[in-house]
From TrEMBL:
<dbReference type="Pfam" id="PF13516">
    <property type="entry name" value="LRR_6"/>
</dbReference>
<dbReference type="InterPro" id="IPR001611">
    <property type="entry name" value="Leu-rich_rpt"/>
</dbReference>
<keyword id="KW-0677">Repeat</keyword>
<dbReference type="InterPro" id="IPR052201">
    <property type="entry name" value="LRR-containing_regulator"/>
</dbReference>
<dbReference type="InterPro" id="IPR032675">
    <property type="entry name" value="LRR_dom_sf"/>
</dbReference>
<protein>
    <submittedName>
        <fullName>Uncharacterized protein</fullName>
    </submittedName>
</protein>
Length: 342
């Protein structure tokens, strides 16, 4: 019995969706449908809407536009799909990444989510909802009882939108994964998110890579980490936190007992400042993965502090399994040390 149908990167277009929708109306077995990259527009979304209101089994609908033959359902397409969100009580994952969905579409989606009681994962990467659209989604987050994963990466969200979300998370007790990567929250304004970390006890994964965060922003976040007891995965890739930021982060790690994975790729931390992290990790016994790719080499070289950090981890943090750095000589040494412990 067919339960998964993957039609990625074909050219079925709206006409093909029409025939597919006719089948969906009466199908009772399909649970996962992927229509990524099929040149589907709002017209095709309308066909799907009508079918999904009658379908009682489909749980995952994927309509992103990763490929050359992109979908572009836009705000008009969203207007049709929201009917399915309101009336279909089976869909749990909705993926609309890379569609041109603006503030208007964000409002439509928010209104639909207000009445939806099943959706657990919503992906809207590379939309254009901006701060205003984020405000409407944040209002829904306050009281939504099923959504656990929200991906709003690359949506032109600034400090204003971050504040809306942070305020909502104070009341939300369900969301566990939040992706705000590649927005422009900013260095000082990240304190809205940091303050939420101090009181939120459900969020386990936070991705804020590439958000123009520097040392001061890391200080705010480190203060939040000292009081947070649930965040497990923290992504800070491509933020210019530098040596001062590394020191602040180390302070936040000293007494944190929840984090298991931190990604610090390309954060402008110099190799010699690995000492800050080393000192912090003397007291940390829960971190499993530390990614320090693209550390900035200094005249003192990269290998000595990295090897010292790894040796410490091997001796005092038995839980650490993944330790990465980008320097062939240093990585060879670290890998050899890992092999010795296996």
């Amino acid at each position: 019995t067919l339960t998964t149908l993957n039609l990625v990167n074909n050219q079925i277009k709206d006409e093909g969706v029409k025939y597919l929708a006719d089948t969906l109306r009466t199908n009772t077995t399909l649970t996962d449908l992927d229509l990524c990259g099929n040149e589907i527009t709002s017209k095709g979304a309308r066909f799907l809407d009508d079918a999904l209101q009658k379908n009682a089994t489909l749980a995952t609908l994927t309509l992103p536009s990763y490929y050359a033959r992109s979908n572009n359902i836009g705000d008009d397409g969203v207007r049709y799909l929201i009917n399915a969100l309101r009336n279909n009580n089976k869909i749990i994952i909705l993926n609309l990444n890379y569609n041109i969905i603006s503030v208007e579409g964000g409002i439509y989606l928010s209104n639909a989510l207000r009445h939806n009681t099943t959706l657990t994962e919503f992906n809207l990467t590379y939309g254009q909802i901006e701060d205003e659209g984020t405000r409407y989604l944040a209002d829904i987050l306050r009281n939504h009882r099923t959504l656990t994963t929200l991906n709003l990466a690359n949506n032109a969200i600034t400090a204003v939108g971050a504040q809306y979300l942070a305020n909502a998370l104070r009341d939300n007790a369900i969301l566990t994964k939040l992706d705000l990567s590649s927005n422009t929250i900013g260095n000082h304004e990240i304190h809205y998110v940091a303050e939420t970390l101090q009181t939120n006890n459900t969020l386990t994964s936070l991705n804020i890579q590439h958000n123009e965060i520097e040392a001061q922003g890391i200080k705010y976040l480190a203060d939040g980490l000292q009081r947070n007891t649930t965040l497990s995965i923290f992504n800070l890739v491509n933020n210019d936190i530098g040596d001062e930021g590394a020191q602040h982060l180390a302070n936040g790690l000293r007494n944190n007992t929840a984090l298991t994975e931190i990604n610090l790729v390309n954060t402008q931390i110099r190799a010699k400042c690995a000492q800050y992290l080393l000192d912090a990790l003397r007291n940390n016994t829960t971190l499993i993965k530390l990614n320090l790719l693209s550390l900035v080499s200094t005249a003192h070289g990269l290998r000595p502090p990295m090897l010292e950090l790894h040796d410490h981890i091997r001796q005092s943090n038995a839980s650490m399994r993944y330790f990465q750095t980008r320097n062939e000589e240093a990585q060879d040494q670290v890998d050899a040390s890992v092999d010795d412990t296996v």
